[in-house]
Predict the structure.
Amino acid sequence: MAGETTTKSRTDRLVAFVSNGRPPENTSGGLLDSEPSSLTKYCRLRSDLIFSRHPAAGGDSYVVKDPVRAQFFRFKELECFIARQLDGATPVEEIRRRAAEKFNAALEPDELNRFIAALRANRLLETGQTGSSPPKGRQRRLRGNAFYLRFSIGDPDRLFNGLIGRIQFFFTPYFVALSAVTILAAVNVIVFNWTDFTGSLPQLFQLRSLPLIWLVLLFVTTAHEFAHGLTCKHFGGEVHELGFILFYLQPGLFCNVSDAWLFPEKSRRLWVSFAGPYFEFFLWGLATLAWWLTDPGTGINHVALAVTATSGFQTLFNFNPLIKLDGYYLLSDWLEIPNLRRRSYACIGAGIKRLFGKRTELEATPRERRFFWFYGLVVAVFSTWLLGYMVIKLAGFFVARNEGLPALAVALFLLTGRIRRRMLRFFPEESKELFRGLGRLFRALKRPAIVGGLLASMFAGAWFFRAELKVSGPIEVLPTRNADVRAQVDGICDRVFVDEGQPVRKGGLIAQLSDRDNLAQLRQTEDDIRAAQAKLLLLVNGPRPEEIAAASNEVAKADEQVQFAASTLARDRQLYRIKLVSQQEYEADQANLAVQRSTLAEAQNQLALLRAGSRPEDIAAAKGDLARLETQRAYLEEQINLAKVYSPADGIVVTPSRQLKEMVHQLVKKGDLIAKIYDLKTVEAATFVSEKEIADVKVGQPVELKVRAYPGLTFHGNVVSIGATTVGQTSSDLEVNGTPASPAGVMDAKMVLVTTRIDNGWLLLKPGMTGEAKILCGRRRILDLVNRRIARTFKVQFWSWW
């Protein structure tokens, strides 16, 4: 969201003139590289120059402003005295004598002549017969380079003059105290409500919120720049430039307050640099409190959230002293070292040249040298890292879309520009001479004969020489075969017998699940089986002879009892008739006979059953019970055997050790994954090739691969299959051998999956590794290689135009 940065822009061109007449560094108009052959006897310093005296413990210095060219120069006291003596009427020799007399030091004519030549080179002397100042040329609106580009949009001086009288409260101690309390309160709100704040941020990541964010950024950055400019006006400076800045491809605003160099007081220069980010921090505090006090979902709350989310980051970014933003100028003013960045690079360059035996004088105190070395090294490392980060991100963006040439062009553009700037700063004189020589070479190459010869040579080389056609694409390593080891039964995992990276054979024991319950059920079932077998045997064998004989004896005894009861009843009947036996005794004899006859019948039936043997139905039922119990026993034995988990294939365990260890004593459900076994002796690489390149890819072509884990090794394989269909921008649903394959995460609109098989005998390649692959499609003429992309454009894209 922080798509813009703000910075108070101060022209980092404070040139220090030195008494030995060395050309001043960092001027845009150019300097005399050598002593001129003749000098005018009388010279006049321009009357419109503005001088500002800066007292210092080591000697006063003067900052001189050229209002025409908006440049600033730092003079030492001797240099300022000489410059002010140049009134057009005093001879140069007299000026030299006065300077030697005033400062009690000899001043050589050559030194004075070189100093005056430097003044003339920087257009600080009057020229011509009538005019006193050089004509003010039209200032270019667009200035800088690809890494630091500035576009001026206007002169805000009149606007600031109208505002400065109405905002005096902002320059009082009361405002400083109020703003400090506001910022501290906002910091407390954010700290104690951080969870609510981060939870509200997704509201800003919506398309409808983008206009609001850009409007908020425009308002905040404008207020930031106005704070710089109005503070400079408050202290008596002038502000004549406001515009846009592009810093390392990041847009922002700037306000040129270079007049701060004229302020003798160090505190005022610091306030000018500090005003912008401090006021923006104050706005952040107000927005944070508004976000906290208002109801979520309201318009004020949403705007306050946008300010809170963007301004805090911008302020921290602007305070970074390693970038030429507010933090850099604060550090430069606090140390009282103008041109800190450039002079630091010059100090490092001088040190490098001393290593090669070339001594270069650098006007700096020991304190300044220490700062130069420390700051210069830190900035060089930081800017190199920042540039490298940009190159990697931009190149990755193009490479992910199979656009290698744009990625290379972007990387070369950024690196070339940065290397050129570094050379100019470390070795200014040598680099200028080198680039002048390259310029002369390029101008010579523009001659028709040379151009024609070069073109002819290039065409001949493209016609006769051949090169390998390589089709590249991102890869992801996949196993040729993979096997999931899963639990076949529910149970508690007692033990895992393998570890990550351990090779296993098919049928090897992987884990053991608890089988205590099944063992107890098995023992009970076996007891029931034995009981059922005994019962079946009893039914099949039938009664024993002894049982039949005993039953026969029981029948005989029962028969005798019946006969005895019958005889007793017959006797008592006769006696009853003659009234010798009572009726009650007679009826008891009848009942006894009936009982004895029933007992005889039962004995006879039991004897008949024993002689008939077991019923077939009882034998069948007993056999059924026995079969059921035997089936249950087989099931329990199978369950106990399935509690031992075996590998279904040869391979290597790829499940992490921690996951395997945590599985012990855990409940495992049927079908749960125990471990993954991959066959890694041969792996496959899924490569997504753009549909524009797939016509040249054939099965069997050699492939060279590099993975990020082993950048120094090149793996070799062959194309084994080419996808039958294309895939779109996302391939999360695409699988190879059951494994999701989306190596780059971002692909072209249409891609084709190409599978490469690689020998992995050393087991270096691991599933999931990513890298790049080059499919070698055969040697072609260089002309044909160049013509491939052109042919696609004209024969497909342009063909549709008519």
The chain is about 50% helix and 20% strand. Residues 320 and 327 are 5 Å apart (CA to CA).
